[in-house]
Amino acid sequence: MPETILAEPEHSAGDEREQRIEKLKALRAAGIDPYPARFGVRQTVEESLQAFAAVESAAGNGSTEGQVSAPNVRTAGRLMSLRVMGKASFAHLADSTGRVQLYLRQDEVGQESYDRFLKLIDIGDIVGVEGSMFRTRTGEVTVRVSEMTLLTKALRPLPEKWHGLTDVEARYRQRYLDLLTNERARNTFVLRTRVISAVRRFLDERGFLEVETPVLQPIYGGAAARPFVTFHNEMNANLYLRISDELYLKRLVIGGLDRVYEIGHDFRNEGVSTRHHPEFTMLEVYQAYADYHDMMRLTEEMYFSVAQQVLGTAHVTFSGQEIDLTPPWRRVTMRDAILEATGIDILLANDLPSLLDAIRQHGLELEVKHNWGKQVEELFDATVQSDLVQPTFVLNHPVEISPLAKRHADQPSLVERFEFFIAGQESGNAFSELNDPIDQRSRFENQGQHRSDGDEEAHPMDEDWIRALEHGMPPTGGLGVGIDRMMMVLTDTPSIREVILFPALRSKVAE
User: Fold this and answer.
1) SS3 of residue 337 by DSSP
2) DSSP E strands, 247-289
3) 192: domain CATH number?
4) What is the distance between the alpha carbons of residues 430 and 110, in angstroms, rounded to a whole number?
């Protein structure tokens, strides 16, 4: 259906609502149930249009009004427009599959029904219709209504079509109105479902098993983030909304499930921005006998496959820049990326004092972090990230910021880890997973020291995870992909709130 622009939904506050309530009373007084329990739909709008097109094609005619009449259709949807022309009226009805014009004549539906339609039915009401289909002189396929049934009386009007809405927040608070009247929003969320289905197909076809792990966890872990905490009355204990699925999924690898993945919601108690949301959808994938190079290939092949399936192309546009998702993607170490951008070699400035000195010498003003690894990350974020428009894997991060990743064999201060960037934003993270329980305990102990130094995102000690590791985990590659950020890239959407159906908002009293 054509795009319409939302207007302030409360534009006439109680007046129109009161008028509709009076119409509701009149309907009931006439013995008409304004909220019947059922209506036998035989075709969706799309199916109705396809049936008419087939009849028209078989007749070899598609241009002259009324010469082709399809068999009766019985469909239902919401009234989106209404135009009265004396004893005849035109309207548009829309369901989730499309939009079709309706044509009502007093002499065909009966004067009583026609008068009731004009007086008691409003735009926004949900109706069922039955009738034959024809093409008007202007070429629009139309249902000639022989019977109309009110299915739901709407007590509030739809947003006005032409005035527009400057308050974007209203679109998020009343997403149902956004979906009803904004074709771009509707298409975005239909596409989101198709993207997630395509991701599942890609992994299923490669032998991965989809699993479910706990959302409420006794110890949060698997990422550097502050958690949401809640209290379980029966257990008399704090529980945390997961910040990652990682440690439970790797327990499954230890248990002999060599290829697993989960698509689910994670929660991080952090700031909200165009790229961050406290509740988000994450894909995590773990593969035994693989490393971070295997995860790179899996990532670029998955993005390419999904784009081809849902968009029909691997070339997308984001903020006016064309992005090519075709493998292979660029690979660059974090050291080389920073050196190229700033002239600073992090392996020479390999402790916090020397790195801070190099940053000052190069005229950069950055927030001072608690340790060398955090400062490297801050330097990278400030000087490199925004320039990574084309898909890029950035490899080999500091150990301090990667407590769950295997050390790099040639550079023990770094780990076998990558993040990948598209359109200047980080879209995923992967490791060769640390499977040495002695090293893991030491990393957690170091994280404890970072926490004592003021790092609120440091990883907590997890004795149960170490116990699991001591039973032996095979060499494993792990990958985390932000589904919301994937959607942002595939739909050319600059704000994460546009790809989440019901984004978190500050409380507001209902009007």
Assistant:
1) helix
2) 259-267, 279-288
3) 3.30.930.10
4) 68
